[in-house]
Specification:
Radius of gyration: 17 Å
CATH class: Alpha Beta
Structural class: alpha/beta
Oligomer: single chain
Bound molecules: adenosine-5'-diphosphate, magnesium ion
CATH topology: Rossmann fold
Helix content: 25-40%
Shape: globular
Low-confidence stretches: 213-236
Largest sheet: 9 strands, mixed
Mean pLDDT: 86
CATH superfamily: P-loop containing nucleotide triphosphate hydrolases
Number of domains: 1
């Protein structure tokens, strides 16, 4: 199996605390929500960074985690590799060019495995709709405690709703101050229509200075982050 040594992401203290809050919230769902998708309205809202941080954070509490970069339209991963080579990726596997075992990469973080996206294919949506993707999730469920899937922005392309059919829950990233309420509602609806419950919305890149440090932080922690629904299901 291919192995890479990851370059640690430097998270600010505040972000690190929020990731821990997200992780704790996730544990309350217990075994019901093990395959979790991250999406957003547009690109650059922080899906990759947050999904990576959450996935690696889950290994810190003894969970075995697989992070899948299923944003096939973006060739480059935000994850910086210090040593080793990413090798083959998801697009190779989905197009039948490599077996699953060849695209799973181990890392220097124990119990943290990754599947990189691989080269950008011409037919991303079609590849994700095929049986290969479904098989991969079915196999991974048997091996990992959590499977975190980073996807393309659902406000721009349909891919995330296809992936959502195989997931137990989803998290919608919203970049604070950058997304119109109506657009966010539209994307939320698309996600709900795929039959995958929205576990929560992460309000990212909040300008605490603008929102007032104390009020802002409090709001972020207790409402902005993860508690999409106090009852655990999709928020209607
Ligand atoms: N909480 C945050 N505060 C500041 N910058 C952030 C935050 N989250 C993400 N970013 C930055 O925003 C950019 C886009 O993030 P990324 O995770 O690649 O977004 P996406 O995967 O949704 O396209 C990156 O440069 C990342 O470092
Ligand atoms: Mg990304």
């Amino acid at each position: 199996m291919n192995q890479v040594i990851l370059q640690p992401m430097k998270l600010s203290y505040d972000v690190e605390e929020e990731i821990k809050t997200l992780r704790t919230s996730l544990q309350f769902f217990r075994d019901d929500k093990r395959v979790i998708l991250f999406t957003s309205c547009i690109s650059g809202e922080g899906k990759s960074e947050t999904s990576y941080s959450l996935a690696s954070s889950l290994t810190g509490i003894g969970k075995k985690v697989l992070l899948i970069d299923a944003d096939l339209r973006k060739g480059k991963s935000v994850v910086k590799i210090k040593a080793g080579k990413a090798g083959k990726g998801l697009s190779h596997y989905l197009s039948g060019q490599a077996p699953l075992t060849d695209v799973i990469t181990t890392t220097d973080i124990p119990n943290f495995h990754m599947i990189f996206s691989g080269p950008v294919p011409p037919d991303a949506t079609e590849l994700l709709s095929g049986q290969f993707f479904a098989n991969m999730i079915e196999i991974a469920r048997r091996v990992y405690d959590y499977i975190i899937i980073d996807t393309s922005p659902l406000g721009l392309v349909v891919d995330a709703s296809i992936i959502a059919e195989h997931c137990d829950g989803s998290i919608l990233m919203i970049e604070s101050g950058n997304i119109k309420y109506r657009f966010a509602q539209e994307v939320k609806k698309k996600l709900e229509n795929s039959g995958c419950s929205i576990m929560g919305v992460v309000l990212n890149k909040v300008d605490w200075k603008k929102s007032g440090k104390y009020y802002g932080k409090y709001y972020g922690k207790y409402y902005g982050n993860y508690y999409g629904s106090p009852y655990g299901g999709a928020e209607k």
